[in-house]
Amino acid sequence: MSDAPKDVRDLASSRAQRRAAKDYPGADELRDQIAAAGWTVVDEPGGWRLEPGAVEASEPAPTRLRAQDVTSVLEQPASADISIHWVVEGWPDDVRRAIASFRAHAGGRDVHYVVADVTGEEPGSWGEDVEVVSLEDGTGWGAARNAGLKRTRGRIVLVMDGSIEATGEVFGPLEAALADPTVGVCGPFGIVTPDLREFDSTNGPECDAIEGYCMAFRREILTTAGLFDEKFRWYRTADIEYSFRIKDRGLRAVIVPVPVERHEHRMWFETPPAERAKWSKRNFYRFLDRWRDRYDLTVSGQPPAQDQHEHHGHHEPHEHQP
């Protein structure tokens, strides 16, 4: 890096600041200026470095698609054992850690890794075995999630969050649970509700919803229950809504313990509290608009007693997960 001219180092430093502020178009513009000067900026844990011999500036940048323009393969036969999906709206190293952990415990399975990326990361940085769906800036969480899911080739689908790291054999227990045709969705983290307003963790095995840290279901769910609701531009409560959609097909949600470590959930902790409260409430009321009073889909199967119903209140939904 010391051989790079000062003006190029300054460009690289400004680019890092733009990326930290999530100004990805601005960061891309600075990357192109660095390339035009004959250097390549390489991101690495804790910072960046400059290498001589940049790719020609005239080489076309990877195409970043609109979510609705992503081609679906769901009408084609499954061609892999498992598809694992991540949405990257920031903190790509968390997802790289997750991918590496699942690779280490794949065994002999044909695992299809899918990253729906809205940050403009270099597609090749994820690894040759990862299918990258590069999406345009401003793509909401639900649309990004669905863009990745439309590329599903595995018979089993894992919807993941980058905070989850596999520490052992995850696939086998989930596959075994989903071999039961009455099970629609499963995963290690489940919640229940007494009133469709507050949700609490449970040891199960039966539960009302599987949390989106790790949700597993069969591929056909994507066509029978549909994709995620794209009105969820933030992730909160989308997992509850999708679990209820699956249960509305007459299927069960069950907790399946698997060896994973849950790290800090960046999207929650690095979003300003006022914003996350506003977006969480908006998402929760969208859930209520569709599933209000559907107690038949809950483990309890019946509405709460009137005094309990009044005690909880309906205007401040319980935050069921970070």
Please describe the topology of this protein:
Elements: H1 6-20, H2 24-36, E1 39-44, E2 47-52, E3 80-88, H3 92-104, E4 111-117, E5 130-134, H4 141-149, E6 154-160, E7 164-166, H5 171-178, E8 183-187, E9 190-192, E10 200-202, E11 206-207, E12 209-210, E13 214-218, H6 221-224, H7 238-247, E14 252-255, E15 260-262, H8 266-269, H9 273-291, H10 306-312
Parallel strand pairs: 3-4, 3-6, 4-5, 8-14
Antiparallel strand pairs: 1-2, 6-13, 7-15, 9-10, 9-12, 11-14
How does this model look, in words?
With 322 residues, the chain is an alpha/beta fold. 32% of the residues lie in helices and 22% in strands. It has helices at residues 6-20, 24-36, 92-104, 141-149, 171-178, 221-224, 238-247, 266-269, 273-291, 306-312; strands spanning 39-44, 47-52, 80-88, 111-117, 130-134, 154-160, 164-166, 183-187, 190-192, 200-202, 206-207, 209-210, 214-218, 252-255, 260-262. A hairpin with a 2-residue loop joins strand 1 and strand 2 (47-52). Helix 1 (6-20) runs antiparallel to helix 2. The protein is globular.
